[in-house]
């Protein structure tokens, strides 16, 4: 049995580490204390082992590049399981395994997997240390890359252990890269045991266990039990010139511009209005009802794990500034001057570089099928501290978070969904969110472009039966005196030739302005069968030239297409059987009626 010195007298934690070490058989156990000094030592070790490559220290200080295996570049949803005693508790939205089988299967992969390696113990807090909103986890991993990323993405170290005390609750997170074999890869969640086991992967979404695994799947389960929401949402503040800030939470499927929106820069045409955007979070929101009857949100993370391709000074200049230091890049192109590049980065493509698979790359290279070879993987990423971001909110460390005025659900749909519409009330808003559908992107394994229903952008992240999740949402609405208003947006509507009709990015503020005007009862709206849409005159288009009638086209409701949509909603709902809350069928029928009669 491996012995180790522990900085905590938390018996359950120490016993668990002993058990996991007996299983994984590391040579050594090392505690991560969160200090700068220890981080530098780990970086050096990872440089020597080749896990990371040092980038140009003058141009990108404190930055590194990591390359993952070519078959380990995205979340592997088909290998991700919810392991509850009863299958129905995982629901039709999840892959399920019984805890007994799951532990037994994974145990075989974990057995001896850390031989010759160090097991790092990472105590981390999701949310500010000590906030009543926050939750503590401990991740055991044999990957320095994971440690270095966790140091950016979460609050790590001795303070967390202090907060945990001798008996505090924590999520047990076990990770081993093992031999990175996709055939021996599993991402297992045991909500009833507050435990996560991930083996055989090195990709962020599968291995930074504080993120999707704990902050969404496990936290979602805890949130239902404890009466709060764990959501796949950005949180942003919009400040008016008088200093008043209103906060919006927004759910979008992966790689649909959530990160860009969270730190949006007001467009030229609106600049004289003096808005300023504050970024609270770009991916996850934990929300609770407070005694004032409002919904309050925190971002449990401390960093961004953003998609690199397409990030440039036009799409997201705040992010370009954020990632100039202390950032880990994964699967991007390495330039000869040891800086990095990706498709859609600022400036010209370099004359040559080393691509994400470590091969010499030149622009215009083609594979055997004649397809362009990309320098960076389409799902290449950067991990970077929120504190670097010029628009980082001053309320990030506040234990109480921020009050939410509006919740936005966004989808990527070339057709059907208008630029923006508002639900009639909370229950209808839950229906709108529950029936959201979006085209797949490179962040998921699957066919890019295919439409799938992705309720609340949570399909891959809801750690329990979605029917119960919808019921939880409905119940939450009843508990609020000031529920946020619920909106749906679609920045991706296209014409028949596939050209986007809306310019997106900073221009989205025009829509957010309308949304806040609605929240503050400043404008009327047009009632349609699917919800309220803006009167085009109420969207400030100053400085934005679009073709005549383009806005009207963006707001158009195609009844026939919506009637078709109803059919697929019905199919989707039917899979939940009797478990689906009746309120959602009521909303379905009301929409059908409105489409017929209005
Ligand atoms: C992410 C995702 O990485 O949603 O945020 O895939
Ligand atoms: Mn995400």
Description:
- The structure is a single chain.
- By secondary structure, this protein is α/β, with parallel strands linked by helices.
- The protein folds into 3 domains: 11-51 and 76-226, Phosphoenolpyruvate Carboxykinase, domain 1; 231-302 and 396-597, Phosphoenolpyruvate Carboxykinase, domain 3; 304-388, Phosphoenolpyruvate Carboxykinase, domain 2 (Beta Complex), CATH 2.170.8.
- Helices cover 28% and strands 22% of the residues.
- The protein contains 16 helices and 31 strands.
- Strands 1, 4, 5, 6, 7, 8, 9, 10 and 11 form a 9-stranded mixed beta sheet that branches.
- A hairpin with a 5-residue loop joins strand 16 (285-289) and strand 17 (295-298).
- Helix 11 (426-434) runs antiparallel to helix 12 (466-478) and helix 11 (426-434) packs across helix 16.
- The longest helix is centred in the middle third of the chain and has 17 residues, at 210-226.
- The termini are far apart.
- Bound molecules: oxalic acid (OXD) and manganese (II) ion.
What keyword list fits this structure?
598 residues, Phosphoenolpyruvate Carboxykinase, domain 1, Phosphoenolpyruvate Carboxykinase, domain 3, Phosphoenolpyruvate Carboxykinase, domain 2, 9-stranded mixed beta sheet, 16 helices, 31 strands, binds oxalic acid, binds manganese (II) ion
């Amino acid at each position: 049995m491996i012995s180790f010195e522990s900085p905590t007298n938390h018996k359950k934690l120490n016993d668990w580490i002993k058990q996991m070490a007996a299983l994984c058989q590391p040579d050594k156990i090392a505690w991560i204390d969160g200090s700068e000094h220890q981080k530098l030592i780990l970086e050096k070790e990872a440089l020597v082992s080749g896990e990371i490559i040092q980038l140009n220290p003058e141009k990108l200080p404190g930055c590194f590049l990591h390359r993952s295996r070519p078959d380990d570049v995205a979340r592997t949803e088909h290998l991700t399981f919810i392991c509850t005693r009863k299958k129905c508790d995982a629901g039709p939205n999840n892959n399920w395994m019984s805890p007994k089988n799951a532990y037994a299967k994974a145990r075989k992969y974990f057995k001896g997997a850390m031989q010759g390696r160090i097991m790092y113990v990472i105590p981390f807090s999701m949310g500010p240390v000590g906030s009543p909103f926050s939750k503590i986890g401990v991740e055991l991993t044999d990957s320095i890359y994971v440690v270095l990323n966790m140091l950016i993405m979460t609050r790590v170290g001795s303070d967390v252990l202090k907060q945990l005390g001798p008996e505090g609750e924590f999520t047990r997170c076990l990770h081993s890269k093992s031999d990175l074999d996709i055939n021996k890869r599993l991402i297992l969640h045991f909500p009833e045991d507050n435990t996560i086991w991930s083996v055989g992967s090195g990709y962020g979404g599968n291995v930074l266990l504080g993120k999707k695994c704990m902050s969404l799947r496990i936290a979602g389960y805890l949130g239902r039990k404890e009466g709060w929401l764990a959501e796949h949402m950005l949180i942003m503040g919009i400040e008016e010139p008088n200093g008043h800030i209103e906060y919006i939470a927004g759910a979008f499927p992966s790689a649909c511009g959530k990160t860009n929106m969270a730190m949006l820069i007001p467009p030229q045409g609106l600049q004289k209005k003096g808005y300023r955007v504050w970024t609270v979070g770009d991916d996850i929101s934990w929300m609770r009802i407070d005694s004032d009857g409002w919904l309050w949100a925190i971002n449990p993370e401390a960093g961004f794990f953003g998609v690199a391709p397409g990030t440039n000074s036009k799409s997201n200049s705040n992010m370009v500034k954020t990632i100039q230091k202390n950032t880990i890049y994964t699967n991007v192109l390495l330039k000869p001057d040891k800086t990095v590049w990706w498709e859609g980065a600022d400036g010209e493509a370099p004359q040559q570089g080393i691509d994400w698979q470590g091969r010499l790359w030149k622009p215009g290279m083609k594979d055997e099928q004649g397809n362009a070879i990309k320098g960076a993987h389409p799902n290449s990423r950067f991990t970077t501290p929120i504190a670097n971001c010029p628009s980082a909110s001053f309320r990030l460390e506040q234990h109480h978070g921020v009050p939410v005025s509006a919740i936005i659900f966004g989808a990527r749909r070339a057709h059907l969904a208008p630029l923006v519409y508002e639900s009639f009330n909370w229950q209808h808003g839950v229906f709108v969110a529950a029936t959201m559908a979006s085209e797949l992107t490179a962040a998921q394994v699957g066919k890019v472009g295919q439409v799938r229903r992705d309720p609340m952008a949570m399909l891959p992240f809801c750690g329990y039966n979605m029917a119960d999740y919808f019921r939880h949402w409905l119940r939450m609405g009843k508990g609020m005196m000031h529920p946020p208003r619920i909106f749906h947006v679609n920045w991706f509507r296209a014409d028949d030739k596939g050209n986007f009709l809306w310019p997106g990015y900073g221009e989205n503020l025009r829509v957010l302005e309308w949304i806040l005007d609605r929240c503050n009862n400043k404008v009327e709206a047009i009632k349609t069968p699917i919800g309220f849409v803006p009167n085009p005159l109420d969207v400030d288009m100053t400085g934005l030239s679009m073709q005549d009638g383009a806005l009207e086209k963006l707001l158009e409701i195609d009844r026939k297409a919506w009637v078709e949509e109803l059919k697929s909603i019905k199919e989707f709902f039917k899979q939940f059987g009797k478990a689906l809350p009746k309120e959602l069928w009521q909303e379905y029928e009301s929409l059908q009626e409105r489409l017929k009669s209005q």
